[in-house]
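User: Second chain of the day. Same drill as before.
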Amino acid sequence: MCNLYRMTKTQDEIAKLFDATDVGPPANFGEEVYPGYPGLVVAANAAGAYQVGTMSWGFPLVMKGKDGQPLKPKPVNNARTDKLDGFFWRSSFERRRCLIPLTAWAEAQGPKGAKTRTWLSLPDAETFACAGVWRKSEELGTCYSMVMTNSAGSAAESVHNRMPVILAQGDYRRWILGSPDEAKALCQPWDNAITIDATDEAWTRGSAGTNGLL
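Assistant: Same format as last time:
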């Protein structure tokens, strides 16, 4: 599951790459995106035109403490493909799908307490897109979550048993504007080349923490 990814392009560069219109002022965000923090998202307006803007990474999961008082919402930043028909995700999957631009995503590897970052990317694309869903919330504002699938058969399987749903450019509009069945058919492991870069970077360095997957 993905709790960290890298996005090195500016909002204006993403707008040009995806033939989208900027929404709002230029975003101020780090190249490394953590759950609960803002990231760039490409979605469609009512006319079907692409728009790019920032949203918070993770749908709020509101829980209560032992005293019955609500706790700080937990950002659920990953949505499992096999759970998209469930209550938590269904409405967003059916009505509000989006593209998440990125240059690489990271997985934690190694022993507990000494995990390091392994970065995965596409060798033939500096920037690519994975599948996402979005919604508005009272707790976190407009937010998005990354759709994850089983990595079986993909090069990413050697790193983690799940991976983001990576979309080919020709499938962007089908993901955003197609029927739920058409979109669900795209939720497959990436069967083309993936570059794997195992580093000695500490996993928790600067991290906002590991968050959930539903």
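Residues 11-17 form the longest helix (7 residues).

User: Great, on to the next one.
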